[in-house]
Amino acid sequence: MEPTSSKEPSRRRLSKRSLNVLSALVGIGTLALGVGWLIYSWIVDLEVPYFAIPLVLTVPVIAAVAFRNMWD
User: Fold this and answer.
1) Are 69 and 23 within 8 A, CB to CB?
2) Over the stretch 12-25, which tens digit does the pLDDT of each residue have?
3) How many CB atoms lie within 10 A of CB 56?
4) Has UniProt tagged this entry with the keyword Transmembrane helix (predicted)?
5) Cα–Cα distance between 29 and 43 in angstroms, integer?
6) What pLDDT is attached to residue 32?
7) Whole-prediction pTM value?
8) 25-50 burial by CB neighbour count: b if 16+ within 10 A, else e?
């Protein structure tokens, strides 16, 4: 009886450069959504929610890091 092979098919990995570019695009896209939401809420409510400004600046970094960690 032959031992079963525990060979798993190898996953295709992205290059470092493309991973960096995609992570930057995710971060920039998230930042654009956050800034757009701030501008929209300022126009509609005529008041900027000051608690949201730090969130808009930090969430894109968190999103980019989470996206990058999906590939590691």
Assistant:
1) no
2) 787 888 888 988 99
3) 17
4) yes
5) 21
6) 93
7) 0.70
8) ebbeebbeebeeebeeeeeeeeeeee
